[in-house]
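Suppose a colleague, Dr. K., hands you the sequence of a protein chain of 369 amino acids and asks what its three-dimensional shape might be. Before reaching for any lab equipment, you can write down a predicted structure in token form. Begin with the sequence itself:
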Amino acid sequence: MTDQFCSLSLEQKVGQLFIIGIPGAALDDETRLLLDEVSPGGICLFARNIRDAAQTRLLLDELRSASSIGPFLSVDQEGGLVDRLRRITGPMPAASLMQNSDNSRELGSIIGDALSLLGFNFNFAPVVDVINAGRSEKANGLYSRGFGQSAESVVENAAAFLLAMQEQGVLGCLKHFPGLGAARVDSHEDLPVIPVSEADFTDVDLRPFRELIADGNIVAVMAAHAVFPAINLQSQNPDGKPLPASLNPVCIDGMLRRDVGFTGIVITDDLEMGAIVNNYGIGEACRLAIAAGVDMLAICSDPDKIREGYRSVLEAVSNGEIAEARIDASLQRVAQIKSQLPAPPEFDSGKVGQLSNRIAKLSERLAHN
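The predicted structure, expressed as tokens, is then:
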């Protein structure tokens, strides 16, 4: 761990485990107070925070300056349904339209170039859930967000996308481990219970994670809020509720760390989603996730819930429920990844038009094909 991390107080250490959302499009007094209280390790912007290119770059530069340790400045920029930059560059095509690795590489390059220009250093993409024709009929919120209808095409296209984006200085994150493709409900609304067989799970859902992680280019994985009753992944909390993957040590410390061999950072999906808040309190979910082996906790909207989650973990470490050594292990991984973050390039407003032109050309090529 770097000297900067070693010198942190316990309160600051715990704060580094959180990726938070902020209320508005400027670094106002409310946001400054939240940053001072929590000292988050990362900040995620949403459409509510993004108005135009210059405003977004100013906000991210100010967030970086206001943080004692350089934060992950993140966003969900996939294209298609999840397109936070559409006000700036115009709409980007969805991952499902990428018919080959060349198209996927161009989308990754455009997104990486745009995010770097704006001051981001981290993107919650690509989605590597396998969404075949049968699965696409389910109202699970994934729709056009996947890179193909087979594990093979997802691996090929997501790898091309990720490499091109990371070449622009923006780190990526595979999601949603161990695979949401067969979900029948949207985890934003409720907890998916995924009845996939062990054979399908191994050959289809887990395969993109296993193969992409084996390539050695993956620094972060997002854990899904879902349970898998038909495979050997389940454990329960003390009151008997099944634990979703994001809170489940069998899934995180067991499958992802030990079996798949992942050594980077594990991040929860947003803990304010219905899958969690309908079944757990925010504080309980945060403690369970850390105990399961997760490194960073995403709470993306409500400042009160951010504070509640932070105080719950801090209390659990202070009273010995969670060992400080457990926190230090996550901080070691976070510090190693943060050491790879480049300084943002000089802002050039003229590049926005160039990026918009590249998007239009890619969309035209996809339509022609």
